[in-house]
């Protein structure tokens, strides 16, 4: 061993006199020469002491300092030795000198996680980038070198339901946080546990030779604590000391500001919130004024940004019985005829209560407290406890004893009591009938166009009973001749004069003449033995004159549906109108801008006049006109065209595809097809190349999705020119239609931005009149439209991604 080592010595010229020396030696390795000290007489040998650690020594005779074993930086980074030279007798000649050996680290230790497995908990809707746990690894190599520079990453993400990971890791600190996607989509209802496989690499992850270790991270997703409490119920008019704690939300730790925002701007809220999330009601509520409240709790951080979505709080104000009954009228006046018998209903006392309807809080009970005067008895009246209906108890009333009674009725809701006043007026018996001044008002002639509500006649009857009572007030009614209530009669309560008015539009064609019989009656019943006779009736005729009216369609809108490929002269609809005067109606069309239809002017039958096309207009709307001699009217006809696959597919790209010259292999370009026909759900096109050898040898087409395919060159030996690639697109419809398109593919020089440069005025090339600058802009435009995704790096913003993923999820 050593002799071999000594032979090398001559070549290396690493010898010299004894002095203080430093050496830097990489760790590892085996037996190895370090240095040879030359001896100066009288020294004949050398001796080394100190931190030899069994692996460093000196050959006494030759002065060769050597390693007999491997240095290990991790065990000892510096070895300090003392070397001296000795004479024959073993006495020190020179020295001792300090020889220091610095061990150089090599990357010989993989990083190690401090745990085999980590667990963490994250809340739904946590802020993106906010760490909820840390992982940590160590590396025994020299921390001042890249050998111990660690970088963390996520290797696997189980499950990984979205296109982007829900978690992210800080590559330096090992902090794990939700990504933007995670903040949005984490939901324990959908997935409550995730397993991440995280890796740590040394060499700052910069080289493929870095050591890598991995560990599992189990993450549990918990429901967000930030959620609205269930509907809060607060009793109104409470006597507690305000503010009163009514609910609580759990604020986010980083939320610095909680506030309440009313649902409707500017409405004042009798609620407040403190920064620990407790919600208070600040004053007594009044259900009778407002029975529900809705508002939001908003959480913001110190920059004023929303920390999470606002919570919607609902409050229901519960009723207590805090409102007394109220009499509907200050005095309820009731008229009773002298002859009304025992048990008769004479009227109803109406009272209300503002407390919640259909609860005991608003249940009212009635009781008569007093009757003045109490003659001839003190209990002439009875009130039904739960309805307020007043009845006579037994005998009839007598105007000569008392014409007028005052009742005090106690109305009670269980807590509150109110007294309502009732006056009972005893009135004369109704023994006179109304007598008309005339038994026949003859007739009136009116045009059928007379406005509704016009007074056409005034009538008068008189009644001899006590004025101002129900015995003398007159109600006029149409007794005969007006089954449809075409007329009404209103009575002037002072004079009992009646006004006959039209109540509905008149129609000469339906009813040209009315033979009316009008009756006059009293609201109070007549006494026994007296009856209405013919003096309470009168006659009246109304003649309606004709006004020429326009024809009337049976419908205002006619709708039809046909396939777009029906033959010319197909009947698609029959419309019908009649003329109220019975004149002949002729039909015509208006607004038939496409000249697709014609109408039979006599029968109203509508036929197609030329071929239809759904791709031009799916809902074709025309007006149908019905005319008679002087009048006309209109209806609408809407023809809905159903799709037939009658359009072959076509390319839907603004610019031709291109490839940068020279080709490097692996390029592909997106091509897109479209079809004017209805795409029922998602059309599926088939793309293929024309069957010629040249094309098939040069190009390849592969399906990307329903509407897109990739075109790729099969080799790289293309010239810089425009190639014609015949592509066949089939729409797979019923019947299937296909189109052969000559796709002009540019193989061209590209700028550094990978946009294609096409020379001006190249014959037969795509942009026949375009200029190079135009092409360049065009290409950039296409990038914006993402039509050529295959060639360009996607530069989408995160917002776009969120939108896309939204769609993906829904
Ligand atoms: C080297 O070390 C081995 C054992 O560790 C020992 O047997 C051997 O003698 C040593 N050689 C020299 C030259 O010191
Ligand atoms: C670590 O992350 C930073 C940004 O977060 C990035 O710039 C850097 O390249 C990453 N380092 C490695 C080794 O991935
Ligand atoms: C609250 O209740 C008391 C009696 O309980 C009542 O007098 C008062 O009017 C009530 N206030 C409101 C606002 O309803
Ligand atoms: C009923 O009596 C009251 C007082 O007793 C009186 O003010 C009122 O005018 C009377 N009404 C009638 C219709 O007699
Ligand atoms: C009443 O209405 C019906 C149906 O609308 C109609 O047939 C009848 O002619 C009308 N009668 C009169 C008198 O207007
Ligand atoms: C109808 O009755 C009243 C009395 O109630 C009487 O004066 C009148 O003559 C009667 N009319 C006819 C037509 O009988």
From TrEMBL:
InterPro entries: Cadherin, Cadherin-like_dom, Cadherin-like_sf, Cadherin_CS. Pfam families: Cadherin. CDD domains: Cadherin_repeat (cd11304). The keyword Iron does not apply. It is found in: Cell membrane. Keywords: Calcium, Cell adhesion, Cell membrane, Glycoprotein, Membrane, Metal-binding, Repeat, Signal, Transmembrane, Transmembrane helix. The chain crosses the membrane at residues 772-792. SMART domains: CA. It comes from the Eukaryota. GO terms for biological process: adherens junction organization; calcium-dependent cell-cell adhesion via plasma membrane cell adhesion molecules; cell migration; cell morphogenesis; cell-cell adhesion mediated by cadherin; cell-cell junction assembly; homophilic cell adhesion via plasma membrane adhesion molecules. It is a single-pass type I membrane protein. GO terms for cellular component: adherens junction; catenin complex. One of its GO terms (molecular function) is cadherin binding. Residues 20-113, 114-327, 328-436, 438-553, 554-659, 671-757 form the Cadherin domain. PANTHER family: CADHERIN-17 (PTHR24027:SF419), CADHERIN-23 (PTHR24027). This is Cadherin-17. It comes from Athene cunicularia. The gene is CDH17.
């Amino acid at each position: 061993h050593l002799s071999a080592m000594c032979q090398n010595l001559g070549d290396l010229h690493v010898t010299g006199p004894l002095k203080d020396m430093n050496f830097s030696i990489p760790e590892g390795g085996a037996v190895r020469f370090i240095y040879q000290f030359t001896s100066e007489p009288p020294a004949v040998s050398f001796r080394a002491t100190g931190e030899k650690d069994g692996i460093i020594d000196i050959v006494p005779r030759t002065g060769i300092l050597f390693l007999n074993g491997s240095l290990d930086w991790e065990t000892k980074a510096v070895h300090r030795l003392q070397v001296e030279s000795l004479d024959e007798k073993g006495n020190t000649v020179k020295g001792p000198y300090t020889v220091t050996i610095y061990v150089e680290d090599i990357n010989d230790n993989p990083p190690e996680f401090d745990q085999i497995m980590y667990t963490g908990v994250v809340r739904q809707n946590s802020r993106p980038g906010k760490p909820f746990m840390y992982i940590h690894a160590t590396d025994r190599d020299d921390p001042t070198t890249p050998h111990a520079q660690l970088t963390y990453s996520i290797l696997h993400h189980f499950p990984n339901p979205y296109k982007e990971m829900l978690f992210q890791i800080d590559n330096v600190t090992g902090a794990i946080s939700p990504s933007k996607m995670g903040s949005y989509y984490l939901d324990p209802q959908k997935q409550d546990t995730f397993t991440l496989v995280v890796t740590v690499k040394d060499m700052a992850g910069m080289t493929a030779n870095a050591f890598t270790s991995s560990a599992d991270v189990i993450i549990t997703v918990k429901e967000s604590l930030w959620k609205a409490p269930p509907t809060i119920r607060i009793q109104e008019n409470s006597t507690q000391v305000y503010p009163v704690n009514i609910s609580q939300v759990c604020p986010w730790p980083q939320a610095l500001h909680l506030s309440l925002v009313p649902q409707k701007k500017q409405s004042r809220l009798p609620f407040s919130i403190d920064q620990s999330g407790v919600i208070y009601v600040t004053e007594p509520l009044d259900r009778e004024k407002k029975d529900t409240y809705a508002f939001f709790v908003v959480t913001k951080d110190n920059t004023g940004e929303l920390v999470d979505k606002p919570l919607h709080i609902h409050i229901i104000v519960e009723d207590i019985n805090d409102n007394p009954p109220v009499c509907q009228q200050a005095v309820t006046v009731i008229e009773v005829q002298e002859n009304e018998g025992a048990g008769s209903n004479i009227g109803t006392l109406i009272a209300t209560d503002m407390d919640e309807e259909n609860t005991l809080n608003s249940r009212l009970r009635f009781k008569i407290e007093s009757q003045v005067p109490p003659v001839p008895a003190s209990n002439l009246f009875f009130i039904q406890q739960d309805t307020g209906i007043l009845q006579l108890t037994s005998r009839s009333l007598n105007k000569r004893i008392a014409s007028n009674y005052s009742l005090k009725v106690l109305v009670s809701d269980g807590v509150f009591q109110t007294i309502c006043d009732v006056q009972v007026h005893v009135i004369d018996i109704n023994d006179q009938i109304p007598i008309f001044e005339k038994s026949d008002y003859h007739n009136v002639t009116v045009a059928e166009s007379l406005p509704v509500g016009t007074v056409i006649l005034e009538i008068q009857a008189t009644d001899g009973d006590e004025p101002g009572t129900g015995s003398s007030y007159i109600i006029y009614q149409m007794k005969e001749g007006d089954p449809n209530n075409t007329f009404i009669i209103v009575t002037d309560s002072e004079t009992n004069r009646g006004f006959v008015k039209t109540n509905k539009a008149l129609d000469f064609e339906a009813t040209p003449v009315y033979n009316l019989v009008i009756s006059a009656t009293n609201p109070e019943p007549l006494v026994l033995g007296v009856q209405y006779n013919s003096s309470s009736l009168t006659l009246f005729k109304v003649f309606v004159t004709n006004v020429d009216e326009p024809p009337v369609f049976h419908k205002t809108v006619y709708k039809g549906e046909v396939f777009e490929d029906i033959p010319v002269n197909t009947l698609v609809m029959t419309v019908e109108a009649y003329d109220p005067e019975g004149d002949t109606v002729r039909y015509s069309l208006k607004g038939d801008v496409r000249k697709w239809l014609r109408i039979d002017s006599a029968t109203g039958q509508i036929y197609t006049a030329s071929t239809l096309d759904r791709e031009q207009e799916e809902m074709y709307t025309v007006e149908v006109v019905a005319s008679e001699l002087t009048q006309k009217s209109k209806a609408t006809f809407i023809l809905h065209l159903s799709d037939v696959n009658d359009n072959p597919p076509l390319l839907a790209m603004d610019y031709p595809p291109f490839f940068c010259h020279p080709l490097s292999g692996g390029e592909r370009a997106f091509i897109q097809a479209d079809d004017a026909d209805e795409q029922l759900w998602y059309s599926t096109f088939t793309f293929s190349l024309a069957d010629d050898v040249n094309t098939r040898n040069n190009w390849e087409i592969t399906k990307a999705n329903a509407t897109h395919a990739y075109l790729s060159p099969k080799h790289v030996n293309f010239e810089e020119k425009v190639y014609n690639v015949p592509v066949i697109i089939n729409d797979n419809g019923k019947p299937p239609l296909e189109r052969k398109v000559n796709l002009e593919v540019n193989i061209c020089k590209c700028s550094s931005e990978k946009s294609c440069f096409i020379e001006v005025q190249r014959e037969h090339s795509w942009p026949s009149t375009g200029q190079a600058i135009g092409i360049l802009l065009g290409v950039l435009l296409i990038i914006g439209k993402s039509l050529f995704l295959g060639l360009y790096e996607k530069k989408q913003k995160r917002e776009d991604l969120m939108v896309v993923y939204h769609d993906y999820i829904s």
